[in-house]
């Protein structure tokens, strides 16, 4: 749902995090629109996210399902795309090599940042899972127990 935007005659499929809309009828409508030429746009392709009661499916599995079913590729506009991270630096006079991303998602946060030329610090909080460090190559610049530990490392070793 996009408040204030008419959705009665859609010309694109935009997938974000809207679990209440990931049901057969809505996914089939998206499928039909893509087959009819509508572009598939993903806010991001996270596999899962952390909720109060544990991990939950993110939009990634649904985007991937639509890609598979329609034989198309989604245009991803968020993490882990390089342009997303570089856009965060725009206007800061900070080069990617001078930036550090701290995140709990090895692939989308850390891997995406490192692909953009930044250092990535993985924290073992939030949606972190044991052995996440081995899921990307190159491995994270550093893995810390939590955000304060990561900040402490930056202050002591990178400034």
TrEMBL record:
<dbReference type="GO" id="GO:0046872">
    <property type="term" value="F:metal ion binding"/>
</dbReference>
<protein>
    <recommendedName>
        <fullName>Haloacid dehalogenase-like hydrolase domain-containing protein 2</fullName>
    </recommendedName>
</protein>
<dbReference type="InterPro" id="IPR006355">
    <property type="entry name" value="LHPP/HDHD2"/>
</dbReference>
<dbReference type="GO" id="GO:0005737">
    <property type="term" value="C:cytoplasm"/>
</dbReference>
<dbReference type="InterPro" id="IPR036412">
    <property type="entry name" value="HAD-like_sf"/>
</dbReference>
<dbReference type="GO" id="GO:0016791">
    <property type="term" value="F:phosphatase activity"/>
</dbReference>
<keyword id="KW-0460">Magnesium</keyword>
<dbReference type="InterPro" id="IPR023214">
    <property type="entry name" value="HAD_sf"/>
</dbReference>
<comment type="similarity">
    <text>Belongs to the HAD-like hydrolase superfamily.</text>
</comment>
<dbReference type="Pfam" id="PF13242">
    <property type="entry name" value="Hydrolase_like"/>
</dbReference>
<keyword id="KW-0479">Metal-binding</keyword>
